[in-house]
């Protein structure tokens, strides 16, 4: 299923403009990309690209949640970055490479729009708003990767778990997350037993409920009270660099009102000049 021009100002489910980067494009830029955008259904566990694998497409998540993992020679893996509706999966395509250093795995069932490498590169090389947004997104992504590495090295497992859960809540329109203790252990690069103990503490405190591979967040403020500073630092960098414009409005010219959204909006007038 491909996007079409009538989707341009649509706000219903499963439209490209649910992705914040696509929503920030000008009408002209969006219409050039729309014929190449393909709606795909993604399920938990699906591997979009193996480590050092060739990238043929970029993915703009809308309701799905995707992670990039670093695989080690001993068979273990550590999650180094996560992407939801705020971003794109496939940064090597526009940064000069066609292979991905990490393994790309779906962590949250939902939808995304897939875009072949050629039209993405072509639009990026025009030097317009898409290039501006993707470079800013890459800067924010680098902050996320760096902060994740520091957090995994220095902060207690309970705080790391809170950060991981909040990262998912920020990017998904649900308080129920698909996650096993094994997958979370892989996410954080720790032993499964450590995750089980940390999750048990949060469940006993009433912050979460864990049943058969599903974690339901019951008290988000409690998670925010227990998380380390890394979650706020990562989130602030994305908010600083990436506006969340009103769907269909000209990029970098809109006045964005703050609403009850999981990824708070920012005023893009502080971020870039009028194109």
What does this molecule look like?
This protein has 275 residues and is α+β, with helices and mostly antiparallel strands. It has two domains: 5-154 and 246-265, Jelly Rolls; 156-227, Winged helix-like DNA-binding domain superfamily/Winged helix DNA-binding domain (Arc Repressor Mutant, subunit A, Orthogonal Bundle), CATH 1.10.10.10. Helix content is 39%, strand content 20%. It has helices at residues 20-23, 27-33, 91-95, 117-124, 129-154, 157-171, 181-188, 192-204, 220-226, 229-241; strands spanning 38-42, 47-49, 53-54, 57-61, 65-71, 77-83, 99-100, 103-108, 110-116, 176-178, 208-211, 214-217. The strands form four sheets. Strands 2-8-5-6 form a four-stranded antiparallel sheet. A three-stranded antiparallel sheet has the order 1-9-4. A hairpin with a 2-residue loop joins strand 11 and strand 12 (214-217). It is globular, with a radius of gyration of 18 Å.
């Amino acid at each position: 299923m491909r996007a079409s021009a009538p989707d341009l100002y649509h706000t219903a489910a499963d439209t490209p403009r649910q992705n914040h980067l696509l929503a920030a494009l000008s009408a002209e830029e969006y219409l050039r990309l729309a014929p190449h955008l393909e709606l795909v259904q993604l399920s938990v566990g699906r591997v979009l690209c193996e480590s050092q694998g060739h990238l043929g497409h970029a993915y703009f998540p809308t309701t799905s949640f995707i992670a990039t993992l670093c695989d080690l020679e001993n068979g273990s893996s550590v999650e180094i970055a996560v992407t939801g509706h705020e971003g794109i999966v496939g940064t090597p395509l526009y940064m000069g490479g066609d292979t991905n250093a990490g393994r790309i795995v779906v962590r949250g069932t939902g939808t995304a729009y897939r875009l072949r490498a050629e039209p993405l590169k072509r639009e990026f090389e025009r030097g317009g708003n898409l290039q501006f947004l993707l470079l800013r997104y890459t800067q924010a992504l680098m902050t996320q990767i760096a902060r994740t590495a520091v957090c995994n090295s220095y902060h207690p497992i309970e705080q790391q778990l809170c950060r991981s859960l909040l990262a998912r809540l920020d990017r998904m329109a649900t308080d129920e997350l698909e996650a096993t203790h094994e997958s979370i252990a892989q996410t954080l690069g720790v032993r499964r037993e450590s995750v089980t103990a940390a999750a048990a503490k949060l469940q006993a405190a009433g912050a979460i409920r864990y049943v058969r591979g599903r974690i339901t967040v019951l008290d988000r403020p409690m998670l925010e009270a227990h998380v380390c500073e890394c979650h706020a630092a990562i989130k602030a960098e994305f908010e600083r660099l990436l506006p969340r414009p009103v769907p269909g409005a000209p990029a970098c010219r809109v006045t964005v009102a703050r609403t009850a959204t999981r990824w708070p909006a920012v005023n893009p007038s502080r971020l870039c000049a009028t194109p």
